[in-house]
Amino acid sequence: MDTVFAPHAIAALPVTGSAAAFPVRRVYCVGRNYAGHAREMGSDPTREPPFFFCKPGDADAVVAVPAGRTVEIDYPPATRELHHEVELVVAIGRTAKDVAPADAAASIFGYAVGLDLTRRDLQAQMKAQSRPWEIGKAFDQSAPVGTLRRAADAGTLAEAAIRLEVDGQLRQQGRLDQMIWSVDEIIANLSTLFTLQPGDLIFTGTPEGVGPVERGQTLVGRIDGLEPLQVRLR
Ligand code: MN
After folding, report:
1. Structurally, how many domains does the chain consist of?
2. Ligand 1 centroid – CA 29 distance (Å)
3. Is the residue at 60 inside a domain?
4. CA 204 – ligand 1 centroid, Å
5. Is CB count within 10 Å lower at the N or C end of the chain?
6. pTM of the predicted model, to two decimals?
């Protein structure tokens, strides 16, 4: 098709053991999916269930972080409080609409470690005014994602440890079985609201311990069984 200017590039994630990359479509995120993080954000996880929000799926927002490399990320504008949130990212490989939790796994292509980078000061201002969160969540380079591992090669991640280190210091630590909504429940729930398509990514929430990062610091996200993700802020 003739376009009035060159189409923008899509984000594409490397896949372990494959020469072909995973083309990204949309980025869905789950909010407050670990009780410890819900509490540190000032809410009561026994009274308020997790919820969804989105980030852009384009190559400006989604940063592919190949295994074994440190990718430089720009400290974003308009904030003094950039926070890390390490998360399991689920990559969708098959259309899912109104699926039951028991059938959700069939739609999963694979998994990666991701960072839901957050301008916490802007998010807090928007929350206080009951306004949308986009300026806190959907900025350029807000979604670094590591190399994907196919579901069949990832083994069972159910109880895997998830961690985040900043300059070698442990900041976040948890286990995937601490999620309030499991991966299957997230997919089932989300698929009643949106038709999930191949290329979609789902950030599944972060354990407690979120906090600020500064220019010059190096972040390493880890989930046992997946490729670590390493970025440096500049
Ligand atoms: Mn998050």
Report:
1. 1
2. 6
3. yes
4. 7
5. N
6. 0.98
